[in-house]
């Protein structure tokens, strides 16, 4: 495959500097999966089925949550609360205003391992994706947390393999996205009780999906990454815009890459960023363009193993990462990122070697001004 075009853009973002790092546990094989910021500090899910909390400035341990009996598959922060999901088939909601030794405030149970979940922007819809059960059925469960612990709907015909990703729409409370090992990327409108009515669009990525999400000023685009380390960009109506193939080919352009950590859309700069990692623990941040990448910076010395999770907030100038070396690292900038120039040159997207002029026009508004780079 042709080398992925990469240019250097070190000034596109402020420099992230390593400010603190939690000490690993030499006698333990504990991994850190997700690491996120909450109202009471950094929360990190670990392979010993705990959620551990740290002070951001020093990463000193504050305590931990113990509830799940199997691997924690995801954690998310909300105002004064934290949500955790597990292969034990449960999603727990924790009130962070209570002592960390307290029981969950709410628990939602399923019969199948929960592999992915998300909460709507207005906190009125909880959606989970399950592993394939013994009847070869992968379920999407929907709850209204205000009503009861029983699902208000179950979708079980849209995917034929494990549902690895659930992402709720950033502004539309009843829309969400699901990604599966079957390679399908499905968009739903949960205001429709019937699954066939709720399913809006289906995109076939051709690879087992390991990550997906909305991006763009109006959340009009979708990124999809696979466990084969490929990256694609789609419209939210299932039109392919760009297929970058294996992102590990970035190594041929001078950016060492062994795997994708994840993608992040930043509304401040109106740009999509890719975080790629090396087996030695380095993190490379890249700006994802219409048909190329811009390498921004490398975050080094924070880890010595595969980085499992990275979250950040450019407006507040922080990032937190967790890795298989058992470490949690806290990164900070000194100045906020600058918003992009309002004017940018429009370019045609290349899809499977063909110029897609209609796709390029969809990414350009009526004044020939473009949300850079889309």
From TrEMBL:
Compositional bias ranges of the Polar residues kind: 361-374
SUPFAM superfamilies for the chain: WD40 repeat-like
Transmembrane spans: none
This protein's record includes keyword Cell wall biogenesis/degradation: no
Swiss-Prot/TrEMBL keywords: Repeat, WD repeat
Domain of life: Eukaryota
WD repeat start-end pairs: 65-97, 300-331
PROSITE patterns linked: WD_REPEATS_1, WD_REPEATS_2
Region (Disordered): 355-374
Protein name: WD40 repeat-like protein
Native source organism of the sequence: Coemansia spiralis
